[in-house]
Amino acid sequence: MDHLPPVLNPFEPLDIPYLGGTEVGYDGLGYEGYPSRQGWDVDLLKHGDLQGRTILEAAHFLQDWLYFGMLRETLRAVPDDPPLELDGLLRAEQTTKQTLVTTAELADLLQDLYRRLEQLPSTDEYYQRFRNCMLLSCGVWQDLMHLCENEGVSGPQILSHEILLSIQVL
Predict the structure, then answer these.
(1) CA 122/CA 125 separation, integer angstroms
(2) Which band of pLDDT confidence, cut at 50, 70 and 90, is reported for residue 152?
(3) Average pLDDT in the 106-130 region?
(4) pTM score of the predicted model
(5) DSSP string covering 123-166, please?
(6) 3-state secondary structure of 92
């Protein structure tokens, strides 16, 4: 198809900054209850109310919950699976020394999950838990996108476009 422009740079990754410290804050004690365990009222946050915290604190919480928490819940075949390790999920940018989120090992993690799910007598509990987490995540993400679109009207933009995109892609 010669009418399409040539792809000059076919792979240019989007840099997603990691907003946390040395470890993921998601505790794995239940996806739905994580916000309250961290002292957040998600209904207020979805409307731009930072509840006395900074935008960076809110963004860190949301990245921990909606990205790393969802990833942890997805990769957890049974409740007593080990916690999610950051190895392979973060990388240091050599020039800026910034820590970035990466999906380089996601395919291997999903293959491992698939093997573990095949060993289970029933995956009904896993899929129901996963579905509930997805419904909650999607609802919160949609509200944050709406907040982002109406920045200044309904409240501050809590998450950058890159982090919102990373949550959506996940």
Answers:
(1) 7
(2) low
(3) 91
(4) 0.85
(5) -HHHHHHHHHHHHHHHHHHHHHHHHHHTTTTSS---S-HHHHHH
(6) strand
Contacts of 125-129 with C-beta under 8 Å, sequence gap 24+, read 126/77, 126/78, 129/31, 129/73
Whether 93 and 15 have beta carbons less than 8 Å apart is answered as: yes
The CA–CA distances, whole Å, from 110 to 43, 67, 120, 145, 168 equal: 31, 15, 16, 27, 17
Structural domain contains residue 107: yes
**pLDDT tier, 23 (very low <50, low <70, confident <90, very high otherwise):** low
Examine residue 146 and state whether it is found in any structural domain, yes or no.
yes
Q: Amino acid identity, residue 22? A: T
Look at residues 137, 29, 21, 134 and name the one whose alpha carbon lies nearest to residue 81.
29
Amino acid 81 reads D
Domains: count for the chain: 1
**pLDDT at residue 81 in the model:** 82
Cα separation, 22 vs 165, whole angstroms? 23
Domain that holds residue 68: 16-169
Does residue 104 belong to any structural domain of this protein? yes
Residue 94 lies in a domain: yes
pLDDT band at 51 (very low <50, low <70, confident <90, very high): very high
